[in-house]
Amino acid sequence: MTDAEIVSRIMSGDVDAYAVLVTRYRPRLSRYALRMLGNREDAQEALQDAFIRAYRAIGRCDDPERFGSWLFSILVNRCRTAGARSTRRARTFVSDEVATRSAAESHPAEQAAWREEIERALAQLDSDQREAFLLKHVEGLSYEEMAEITGAGVSALKMRVKRACDRLRGLLQEAYSA
Amino acid sequence: MLEDEGGDATIERMALALRQPVDLGPEVDRAVMAAIRAAPLRVAGVPRQRSAWAWLVRPRSVRFNITPIGALAAAGIAIVAALFGLRRDQPTDRVADTQRQTGEFPVASRPAPVHDTVFVTKFYLVAPTAKQVALVGDFNDWDREKTPLKPVQNGNGTWSVDVHLPPGVYSYAFLVDGKEWKADPRAPRSVGDDFGRPSSVITVVREGMST
């Protein structure tokens, strides 16, 4: 069943149809929320909030075939709001929350060290740079898609991504040279 | 491509690790569906529950002074004009025309509403270049087909529509030519702005409205 068909059923009053969309998009949105916010509690809260808000405003989804993109834009905004709040919880990247597998790091100790450095470096980025980096390099969006979601211009987004990469590279090199 | 965007092998390796799937778990599904089932979307024909806003519906008097249409020069400026108690057998257009002429909506001077009174909210949008304008809001499930505005005769590009609303708080926006969303600059912005579309809030009470 396509997103548009599900949206149509929801608009007709079929509440349970929304569960299909939640299950369909939860993995991808989980990844972004967790990478962006850095801890499970905040990520879960933002994700739930995004899903509920999307349901309440589903009539405002211009193109139900692209429900996923629209939902993703809501999550990006929820993550911004969550990130802008005073840090109720410290930004703590728990090691098992970030992916571990890396072909170049075969030894478990090296994997753990690499993982830890990724988490630390990502956490040190400005939120707009982290957002741009994740959307581009992790979610694989085009700059046009990023512009649509974030409301920022393509040039600004390219600059954010470049600065994020420069900063990440510097932080990782610094960590390894130390 | 990566080099152009500041990336290189180190960045790609990092991104590769970050692309690995994570899942916040089915408890998210359960929480979301529980919240939704507790307050499902209002489908046409099903009355809206507004207990949280019950305090808003107590009787009160509100007087409006709206800037005359002629003073509205800027295209695209939206006006939510008025709400007034109106008996069902009262000709809506005549009352609306009078109010457009005077720019005043003396709701306080109207008789106290009775049980069969309906409340009409008049929405205005000044959009001289628009070919069509629709009103979308949570009162019509954001359906662009349900509530089209009509051009006001000799209104200099003004569009309007009367909407019967029970007391409560509503989010709404104007949809111009089927693609451009406009919030009402004279009304509070909705917290729902983060859905990627601008929108406004209107509060309807028994004898008048505030925005």
Write up this protein.
The complex is a heterodimer of chains A (178) and B (211). Chain A has eight helices and no strands. In chain A, helix 2 crosses helix 4 (67-84). Chain A has helices at residues 3-11, 17-37, 40-56, 67-84, 108-124, 127-138, 143-150, 154-177. Chain A has two domains: 3-84, RNA polymerase sigma factor, region 2, helix turn helix motif (Rna Polymerase Sigma Factor, Chain: A); 96-177, Orthogonal Bundle (Arc Repressor Mutant, subunit A). Chain A is mainly alpha-helical. The model of chain A is unreliable at 86-105 (pLDDT under 50). Chain B has 211 residues and is of the alpha+beta class. Chain B has one domain (55-210): Immunoglobulins (Immunoglobulin-like, Sandwich), CATH 2.60.40. In chain B, 16% of the residues lie in helices and 26% in strands. Chain B has three helices and eleven strands; from the N terminus they run H-H-E-E-H-E-E-E-E-E-E-E-E-E. Chain B has helices at residues 9-18, 26-38, 92-102; strands at 64-65, 78-86, 104-105, 118-126, 133-137, 150-151, 158-164, 168-176, 180-182, 200-204, 209-210. In chain B, strands 5, 8, 9, 10 and 11 form a five-stranded antiparallel sheet that branches. The longest helix of chain B has 13 residues, at 26-38. Chains A and B meet through helix 2, helix 3, helix 4, helix 5 and helix 6 of A and helix 1 and helix 2 of B.
